[in-house]
Specification:
Layout: E1 3-4, E2 8-12, E3 16-21, E4 24-34, E5 37-46, E6 49-58, E7 63-71, E8 76-82, E9 101-103, H1 111-127, H2 131-137, H3 141-173, H4 181-195, H5 198-204, H6 212-230, H7 240-263, H8 270-278, H9 280-305, E10 310-311, E11 319-320, H10 322-359
Parallel strand pairs: 1-6, 2-9
Antiparallel strand pairs: 2-3, 3-8, 4-5, 5-6, 7-8, 10-11
Length: 360
């Protein structure tokens, strides 16, 4: 009987190799390792009909001797564990790929995607810890969740008040509402943004797993705009830029805070989850552009009023205008946009990759 080679498809993770052998109704299956080379032989129906098929693959790096395999009516699935968990540049020791070998695109991931999957698995492992054992280890878990729930509830109510107030005034007054936004909503925005400082403190205390630096960038950037640009310059308080900045901020937060609030009690609404992980894609860059417009409009005012100017030695001049610092801040603002956008995008991919695995 003619001996043929079956089609073999492969994929990898940091610690494992997956092989899919296109051989249906496999019989007399024989799979073993010989000096780091996988040997395969079986009788079954492959690309050349019913025949005996066999192949061998010498792996690029050492693997563990245990081989897990499963034969179905359609194919043979093989899983081999790597000796050292690391990413391989290719599967085989020989640089030229065997003609019967191809990537398994159904399971294929690049290295960065595999790292995200590994991180998501670690997060799922943590989430599967028995609730009772967690309570014994952390007797203040209920108190922490209660604090986070109340914090997110207060912020949700505050930003909802701002959003509804601005929306109603926009429908009633039209464009005229642009010019008195600060005087009608500033007190509540002051309160919400001062409360937001807790979002920088919470990661440091281990209350949330959110990154410290993304939270610091967002809170600091917003407070500069609110307290320095709008709060200290009366000339800026009647500018339409205030309306767009406040409206975009509140549009993001009325979905973000209730999402975290429900997460504290183990509840999820699919629509709210989608809004939380999708609306920021257009709104966050638009918010940064609105903030940049406000900063640019404030530059001549700081030059004229000399407010917050830095005194210099007499040999260098009288003072350094605060507008120069704001020009540097403009560059940092868009750098912060890139950092936070990348962070949020990774969060979104990790979230939906995790949900996709649960569905499967």
């Amino acid at each position: 009987m003619q001996i043929l080679t079956p089609h073999v498809y492969w994929a990898q993770r940091h610690g494992e190799i997956f092989l899919r052998v296109e051989l249906s109704d496999a019989k007399n299956l024989n799979i073993w390792l010989q000096e780091n080379t996988l040997q395969f032989s079986a009788q079954g129906h492959g690309a050349k009909g019913d025949n005996e098929y066999m192949f061998s693959l010498e792996f690029l790096e050492p693997v563990r001797p245990e081989i897990n395999h499963k034969s179905t009516q359609r194919q043979v699935d093989i899983k081999v564990k790597k000796q050292v968990e690391r990413w391989w540049d290719r599967l085989t020791l020989q640089e030229k790929k065997p003609v019967f070998l191809a990537p398994d695109f159904d399971r294929w991931l690049d290295e960065s995607d595999a790292e995200m999957e590994l991180q998501a698995k670690e997060e799922e492992k943590i989430n599967r810890i028995n609730v009772e054992s967690r309570v014994r280890k952390d007797p203040y878990l209920g108190l922490k969740k209660g604090y986070l729930f109340m914090y997110n509830l207060v912020q949700f109510l505050g930003f909802s008040w701002i959003f509804v107030n601005m929306t109603v005034r926009l429908f009633i007054l039209g464009q005229d509402s642009f010019y008195d936004t600060f005087h009608t909503t500033a007190d509540m925005m002051y309160f919400c943004q001062m409360m937001a400082v807790l979002e920088v403190i919470n990661p440091l205390l281990g209350l949330v797993r959110t990154g410290f630096f993304p939270a610091l960038i967002q809170v600091t950037g917003r407070n500069v705009i609110l307290f320095v640009i709008f709060g200290s310059l009366e000339e800026m308080q009647n500018q339409p830029a205030v309306f767009f900045v406040f409206y975009l901020w509140s549009s993001i937060e009325i979905f973000r805070y209730p999402f975290y609030m429900l997460a504290c009690i183990g509840t999820e609404w699919k629509l709210l989850t989608w809004l939380r992980y999708s609306l920021w894609i257009p709104l966050y860059p638009l918010g940064t552009i609105s903030e940049a417009v406000a900063v640019i409009q404030s530059l001549p005012i700081f030059d004229e009023t000399r407010r917050f100017s830095l005194p210099l030695p007499a040999a260098l001049g009288q003072s350094l205008s605060f507008s120069y610092i704001l020009q540097i801040y403009l560059v940092l603002m868009f750098l912060g946009l890139f950092i936070n956008f990348r962070h949020l995008y990774k969060q979104r991919r990790r979230r939906y990759r995790s949900r996709k695995r649960k569905v499967q």
